Amino acid sequence: QVQLVESGGGLVQPGGSLRLSCAASGNIFGIYRMGWYRQAPGKQRELVATIFNSGSVNYADSVKGRFTISRDNAKNTVYLQMDSLKPEDTAVYYCNFYRLPAANNYWGQGTQVTVSS
After folding, report:
1. Which of 25, 33, 34, 50 has the greatest number of CB atoms lying within 10 Å of its CB?
2. Mean pLDDT in residue range 23-36
């Protein structure tokens, strides 16, 4: 099992920045992909950014150039640096770890990000 704990959410004005953290504990052997998803009220959960164990990264078009995903293997932590935030970025942000070959999905409890003046 893998336990994920997110932190760093909060209220920020448009144009501001936040840095989310996701600390993993437990058995993280075989984790193939780490990522951030978000879910706004009344909407489906959507992919924000992923980072693979190879180091390659992917971003949703809506956040390219504004968000940066990174990881610290020594701390078993993945980060999401969010800059130039917009009101439409308001959502609950979830951390996700995906393990192969078992195809196990692990989720954090979510952290609220609110972008408002």
Report:
1. 34
2. 90
